[in-house]
Amino acid sequence: PKCTHTTEIFKAKASGKERGGQKLATEFGIPFLGRIPLDPRLMQSCEQGEALQQAHPNSVASEIIAGIAKQVSDLLHLNEKFV
To answer: How far apart are CA 45 and CA 81, in angstroms?
Structure first.
């Protein structure tokens, strides 16, 4: 992997602007929630049993995960106390 290069981990033959996971979501008729970068801090937090949002709240991956959690909450009509 390269820092400025995107590696699609969910391979799907894509045409147009949709790629990987987004293409699969479209094919299955489900919402595409986002792309989480492969951040070493994410993997390290998981291995140490920490929440990335607590250990590294300002990381790009943390912000994207928070956005995905918000989307899921909205889709399930949950209020903020559960997110």
So the answer is: 23
Nearest to 70 by CA among 31, 25, 12, 22: 31
Burial string for 25-61 (b: 16+ CB within 10 Å, else e) reads beeeeeeebebbeebeebeebeeeeeebbeebeebeb
Q: What is the pTM of this model?
A: 0.71
- Give the whole-angstrom CA distance, residue 45 versus residue 20: 25
Phi, psi of 65 (to 5 degrees): -60, -40
Alpha helices of 1-83 — where are they, by DSSP H?
20-28, 40-48, 52-55, 60-76
Q: Residues 2-46: pLDDT tens digits?
A: 566 666 666 656 556 667 788 888 889 999 999 888 888 988 998
